[in-house]
Hints:
extended
Amino acid sequence: MVEVIENKAFDLLTDMERLDLIRINVPVNNVDIYEKRLSERFAGALRLSNDRYEEYQNTLKEGRNEWVRNIY
């Protein structure tokens, strides 16, 4: 039994489980964590101001536009 104090530690444990390094026995009340989509789990995780969020989105768009996409 492990008490997770920081969410980053829980993410690390989850990654270790996915790599078959450990097994997590999930209590019934925490099963919904695995059923949520990643976009729902991490929504608002950056906690950016509106200006910083807009800058972040523009940077992502610029990066995507720089990719060379030769699809045949």
